[in-house]
Amino acid sequence: MALGASLSPGAPGRLGQRRYKKDVLPSPDRPAPSVSITEIRQYLRAQDIPFHDGYSCLHTPSLFTGDRGDQPLSANAPFTLFIDKTTGSFLCTATLAEGTWQDFQANVEMRHRGITPIPPASSEEMEEEMRQAREDARCIWERALPLWELLDEKETKETKALFGISQVSNATLKRFGVRYLRTARSLVFPWFSPQDATLKGLKLVRVEKKGGTITYVEETLPRFDSYRNLFGLSLIGRRDTELVLTGWELDALALHQAAGVASVALPRGASCLPPTLLPYLERFKRITLWLGEDLRSWEAAKLFARKLSLKRCSLVRPGNLQPRPLEALNQGLNVTKILRSALLASHKSIVSFRQLREEVFGELVNTEQVSGVKWTRFPELNKLLKGHRRGELTIFTGPTGSGKTTFISEYALDLCMQGVCTLWGSFEINNVRLAKIMLTQFAGRRLEDQLELYDEWADRFEELPLYFMTFHGQQNIKTVIDTMQHAVYMYDITHVVVDNLQFMMGHEHISVDRLAAQDYIVGAFRKFATDNMCHITLIIHPRKEDDEKELQTASIFGSAKASQEADNVLILQDRKLVTGPGKRYLQVSKNRFDGDVGIFPLDFSKASLSFSSSKSKVRLKKMKEEKEILANKIVEGGSGTSKKP
Questions:
Q1: Rg (CA), the chain
Q2: 444: nearest Cα among 605, 308, 332
Q3: Most CB within 10 Å of its CB: which of 4, 7, 167, 444?
Q4: What gap in Å lies between CA 206 and CA 400, rounded to an integer?
Q5: How many C-beta atoms lie closer than 10 Å to residue 112's C-beta?
Q6: Contact 422/534 with Cβ under 8 angstroms?
Q7: Regarding predicted confidence, which is higher, 315 or 582?
Q8: In 274-311, which positions are buried (b, 16+ CB within 10 angstroms) versus exposed (e)?
Q9: For 381-437, what is each residue's pLDDT tens digit?
Q10: Where does 239-371 sit in CATH, by number?
Q11: Contact, 228 vs 200, CB < 8 A?
Q12: Is residue 5 a contact partner of residue 16, using CB atoms and an 8 Å limit?
């Protein structure tokens, strides 16, 4: 079986061609009932269900094993059912039964009526998908060869060198069961069931070389959102209480060999820690997160530590002398020493610069990474904003009909294709229309004219870490914030797009003053971005002004609070430049990161719905203050550069 095409270098691809439904968050018509940890505890006590507190979950005896349905659960039974403290969802590690808090309550009621509880069933479509994935995985696994048993010793050495694992011993590869698929030139990592050790799936990793750059491309069976393999977990003894969590299977191998520690790899690397995996990590009293060697891995480690409980987590900070584990092994570094130097995830307080010293040094050394994820479609935006950073609030505005939604969808799509987990809240246009726009931008062509290509592009588009809120029309800010909070926990969302603010103002009753309502909403988004290290892009319509005038920061509807709270202010101007081509251009009128502001033209392609700038026509202008824009535009060949103090 040939490997499927990947989305982009380094992004996950898929095996085979199947269509799946894209995940959406709960509809406002049927909201997911929320439950607090206090309510969960009160319910368990009221039902005489024994439990004890874990780090991320409450532990109880399973409803689905052992005792008869009409008998109370025994405190002497194994506590194999885990209830997530944040969502109320449960997982039984003994039977793999899982469901929502409402499913759990329904099964408890069945026991009281003397009926044996029945685990919530998956859809027939999902069951068939998983069955087919297991069958495909079995076929690939049987064709793959143990890497240490290749007939040609030269081929073995070349293969290990290609993947950078020349220092990884055959004994380590054998222990973890790593194989090699010749036809696809891929390493094969197995996913075995914790119940009966049967093969549930696979991850294949291959190397792509482009110029001097080496990229690792991953593919999984089943698809990524159903692939829940904590690689290496089955090899850890029951008495082990300490664990190192890595973002890559080869790092787990390196850690075991170099330091002899219990180590596992997350199925999606540093992009996501699915809550369904938390029960398997409950038994460890100390967890060290060593997810990679860049700033994004460091930020992910801090977020994951919150899910796992800060009090038991330590973090390995990336640096020149602390690269990712595989690289540390290859360089001959003391891996045990690096692990011992891991920083505690929680501090009661920051009392001196000494505790901040390494953080400050890290930002000075890694200036490019600190500046954030770069856009590939808008290089001129990188020159001004330097990148897309977590924890910031961006305000985006533009005249009615100028293409705000179309532009911001491509702006967000660019980041999403680079692994930025994105949540869209489109209150103005429905999700079908929005997805059509984004798919057209993703494919770079009119798929209406090439319907035979639809499945191919839709399959690739589905692999993006992209989710949609199913809200439409006016919404209450609390409902929206609650949904965003749920998405951050479940899917590790790091970018939320809200289109637009005006659709949330009709539901606010805190004041008859619409300006006060807007200030409250902007403040809520600002707080959410900071508290959750999540970037929020908020679209706000401009106030009614003379069509002949260009928009300014003061043109944003409402009071000055929106522009004051924002880290970045972007304006889509719908005017022809005096000194250059292009009807529309993007203006950066505020940039809190380093102060650079400016404008650049946009070229719109109707066929691909793309605003990607034409490099040959771009004339980047930097200005100290936005009121200098008009003056600079009329200067022949004028180009100013400035920094805000």
A1: 26
A2: 605
A3: 7
A4: 47
A5: 11
A6: no
A7: 315
A8: bbebbbbbbebeebbbbbbbbbbbbbbbebbbbbbbee
A9: 999 999 999 999 999 998 888 889 999 999 999 999 999 999 999 988 899 999 999
A10: 3.40.1360.10
A11: no
A12: no
| Dist. CA 204–CA 571, nearest whole Å | 43
108 pLDDT higher than 80: yes
| Assigned token pair, 578 | 């005096």
Q: What is the pLDDT of residues 269-306, one digit of tens each?
A: 999 999 999 999 999 999 999 999 888 899 999 999 99
Determine if the peptide bond prior to 500 is cis (ω within 30°): yes
Report residue 240 as tokens.
Answer: 């082990």
Q: What is the pTM of this model?
A: 0.77
pLDDT tens digits for range 340-375:
999 888 765 555 666 567 667 777 777 778 889 999
Identify the CATH assignment for 379-619 out of 3.40.50.300, 3.90.190.20, 3.40.50.720, 3.30.2010.30.
3.40.50.300
Residue matched to tokens 């759990």: 104
Task: Average the pLDDT over 553-565 and give the result.
Answer: 78
Residues in the chain: 645
Question: How many Å apart are CA 246 and CA 267, to the nearest integer?
Answer: 10
What one-character-per-residue DSSP string does 109-142 give?
HHHHTTPPP-PPPPPHHHHHHHHHHHHHHHHHHH
List CB contacts of 510: < 8 A, sequence separation 6 or more.
516, 517, 520
Give span(s): CATH 3.40.50.300, the chain.
379-619
